[in-house]
Write a structure and sequence with these properties.
167 residues, alpha+beta, 5-stranded mixed β-sheet, 3-stranded antiparallel β-sheet, 5 helices, 10 strands
Length: 167
């Protein structure tokens, strides 16, 4: 059963929250006022929610040997592109073109969720997620996060857990 507040849940939800509700996953929605001047979407979310940046994960889209791949890493660190490529059996990875990432996922940059994407992409969740009972990821728009168990996130996205983040 989803735990959510009517004040925080946008009417109709986002594709991410709709997917979570349809799957019967327990999650909490966290809404905050997005500041367009903030230099980091993920750090802004952590600050606004009062949550450690180690528990707030950003969703990045990379190109691994010509295939778009989703990487979910803590906002406190960076994505290790070589480790991402290795995690999916690839040789080379580079950040995807932002416009292509937006078109493919159906979300805008800074609001890309690993859940409810327009096209299901291979997904890798940083192994540090398993250190936490719950983590926060984008709910599909800037200023909206969902908190859920890393196991549920991995199961719903088909994610592989691998050490793809670095401090």
């Amino acid at each position: 059963m989803a735990k959510k507040s009517k004040k925080q849940q946008p009417s109709g939800g986002t594709p991410a929250t709709v997917a979570l509700t349809a799957a019967g996953v327990t999650y909490t929605v966290h809404a905050y006022e997005h500041d367009p001047a903030h230099p980091s979407y993920g750090e802004e979310a952590a600050e606004a929610m009062g949550v450690s940046p180690a528990r707030v994960f950003k969703t990045l889209v990379a190109d691994v040997d010509g295939a778009l791949t989703v990487a979910v890493v803590p906002v406190a660190g960076q994505l290790d592109l070589k480790a991402l490529a290795a995690a999916v059996g690839g040789k080379r990875a580079a950040m995807a073109d932002p416009a292509l990432a937006e078109r493919t996922t159906g979300y805008v940059r800074g609001g890309i969720s690993p859940l409810g994407q327009r096209k299901r992409l291979a997904t890798v969740l940083d192994a540090s997620a398993s250190d936490h009972a719950t983590i926060c990821v984008s709910a599909g728009r800037r200023g909206l996060e969902v908190e859920l168990s890393p196991d549920d996130l991995a199961r719903l996205t088909g994610a592989v857990l691998a050490p793809i983040g670095r401090a």
